[in-house]
C-alpha cells in the first residue's frame, strides 16, 4: 500500500515537472500568438504573468496547433470537435478561456439547419441552389415571376393564400417554385417541396408507419408546402379523401399556404379528381376539393417556350 502511494506521488511530481517544463516552452511559443499578444497589450502583463494559467494555455496551444493543420471537421482532435478555446480578459482583469466554434463547424451547422428547414420529395437536388437571380425573364414568364416575388415579400400578410401556377410542360413552373423555396429557406422558413406523383406512392408504401406519420406531420406543419405537378399523380379515392382533403383543411385552418404547379388549369383538375369509380359522390368530393384550392390560391398562368429543349 505504502509502496503504491510512493509510486503515485513520484508519478505526480514527474507530471508536475513535465508541466512546468512544457509551460515554459509553450509560453515562448505563444509569445507570437495574436490572441495572446492582444491580451498582453490590453493588460500590460508579461508572459510570466500568464504562467498561472499553465493548464489552460497548454490546451489552448494544442488546439491552436490542431487548427493550424486542420484535418477536417470529422477528424478534428479537439474536444468538443469543431471548437477551440480562446483567451479573453474581462472587466475585472481576469483571464478566462472561452470555447468557440470554428468556421467549418459553423458551416456544417448551417447545412444541417437548412436540411431540417428544407425537405424535398423527388425534387432534383440541384434545384435547392436556384434563387430569383437565376431566373431568366421573358414576356411570357414575367407576370408569374412578379406574382412569385409578391408572394415571398407578403408571405405573412397573405394569411395562407398560395399560388396555383399552371401552364405547359417546360415553361419553368418548377424552377420558379425552387426560387421561392430557396428565398424563404434563406430567411429561416421551413419548406417541403413535393413532387405530387411521388407523394402518394411514398405514403401508400409506408401507410401508418412512423415514416408515414412523420411525413404527414411535416406536410401539415411546414411554413410552406409546394405540391409540384398536381394532376399528374395517380389519384385514388383514398389519396383524395384521406390524404389530400384533410391536408388542405389542416393547412388552410392554420393559414399556412400551399403552392401548386400543374399542366392543367383548376377547371381541368376537377375532371382529374372526379376520375374514380363512384360517380356523383366523386364529383362532389372533387368539386369541394377544387373549391378549397381556389379559395386559398391566386391562379397564375405561365407560358412560353419549352426551356428544357434549350438548356
Ligand atoms: P415546368 O415545371 O414548367 O415543366 P421546369 O421548371 O422543369 O418546367 O423547367 C425546365 C428547365 O428549364 C429547368 O430545369 C431550367 O433548366 C430551365 N428553365 C425554366 N425556366 C427558366 C428560367 N426562367 N430561367 C432559366 N432557366 C429556366
Ligand atoms: Mg414541373
Adjacency order of strands in the biggest sheet: 3-5-6-7-4-8
Order of helices and strands: HHHEEHEHEHEHHEHEHHE
What's the main sheet like?
Answer: 6 strands, parallel
User: How far apart, in Å, are the first and last alpha carbons?
Assistant: 82 Å
- Say how many strands there are: 8
Bound molecules: adenosine-5'-diphosphate, magnesium ion
| Overall pLDDT confidence | 89
Share of β-strand residues: 5-15%
Q: Which structural class best describes the helix and strand composition? A: alpha/beta
Low-pLDDT sequence parts: none
Q: Could you describe the 3D structure shown?
A:
The chain has 311 residues and is α/β, with parallel strands linked by helices. It is 51% helix and 14% strand. It has eleven helices and eight strands. It has helices at residues 2-30, 34-43, 54-68, 103-117, 142-153, 173-186, 196-205, 210-221, 237-253, 266-274, 280-295, and strands at 83-89, 95-101, 118-121, 162-166, 191-195, 224-228, 258-262, 297-301. The strands form two sheets. Strands 3-5-6-7-4-8 form a six-stranded parallel beta sheet, with helices on both faces. A two-stranded antiparallel sheet has the order 1-2. The longest helix has 29 residues, at 2-30. It is elongated, with a radius of gyration of 30 Å. The N and C termini lie far apart (82 Å). The mean pLDDT is 89. Bound molecules: adenosine-5'-diphosphate and magnesium ion. Residues 135-136, 141, 169-175, 261, 307-308, 311 line the site of adenosine-5'-diphosphate (ADP). Adenosine-5'-diphosphate (ADP) is lined by residues 135-136, 141, 169-175, 261, 307-308, 311.
Amino acid at each position: 500500500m505504502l509502496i503504491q502511494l510512493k509510486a503515485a506521488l513520484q508519478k505526480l511530481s514527474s507530471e508536475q515537472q513535465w508541466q512546468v517544463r512544457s509551460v515554459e516552452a509553450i509560453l515562448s511559443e505563444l509569445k507570437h500568438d495574436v490572441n495572446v499578444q492582444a491580451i498582453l497589450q490590453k493588460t500590460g502583463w508579461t508572459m510570466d504573468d500568464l504562467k498561472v494559467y499553465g493548464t489552460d494555455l497548454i490546451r489552448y496551444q494544442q488546439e491552436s496547433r490542431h487548427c493550424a493543420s486542420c484535418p477536417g471537421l470529422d477528424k478534428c482532435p479537439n474536444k468538443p470537435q469543431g471548437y477551440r478555446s480562446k483567451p479573453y480578459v474581462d472587466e475585472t482583469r481576469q483571464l478566462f478561456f472561452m470555447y468557440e466554434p470554428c468556421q467549418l463547424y459553423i458551416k456544417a451547422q448551417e447545412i444541417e439547419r437548412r436540411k431540417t428547414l428544407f425537405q424535398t420529395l423527388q425534387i432534383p437536388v440541384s434545384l435547392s441552389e436556384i434563387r430569383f437571380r437565376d431566373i431568366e425573364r421573358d414576356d411570357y414568364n414575367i407576370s408569374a415571376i412578379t406574382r412569385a416575388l409578391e408572394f415571398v415579400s407578403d408571405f405573412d400578410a397573405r394569411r395562407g393564400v398560395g399560388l396555383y401556377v399552371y401552364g405547359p410542360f417546360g415553361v419553368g413552373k418548377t424552377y420558379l417554385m425552387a426560387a421561392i423555396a430557396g428565398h424563404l429557406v434563406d430567411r429561416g422558413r421551413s419548406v417541403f417541396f413535393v413532387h405530387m406523383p411521388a407523394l402518394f406512392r411514398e405514403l401508400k408504401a409506408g401507410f401508418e408507419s412512423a415514416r408515414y406519420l412523420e411525413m404527414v406531420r411535416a406536410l401539415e406543419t411546414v411554413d410552406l408546402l409546394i405540391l409540384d405537378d398536381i394532376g399528374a399523380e395517380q389519384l385514388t379515392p383514398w389519396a383524395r379523401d384521406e390524404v389530400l382533403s384533410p391536408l388542405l383543411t389542416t393547412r388552410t385552418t392554420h393559414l399556412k399556404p400551399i403552392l401548386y404547379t400543374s399542366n392543367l388549369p383548376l377547371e381541368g383538375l376537377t375532371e382529374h379528381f372526379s376520375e374514380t369509380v363512384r360517380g356523383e359522390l366523386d364529383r362532389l368530393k372533387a368539386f369541394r376539393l377544387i373549391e378549397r384550392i381556389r379559395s386559398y390560391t391566386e391562379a397564375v398562368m405561365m407560358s412560353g417556350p419549352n426551356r428544357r429543349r434549350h438548356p
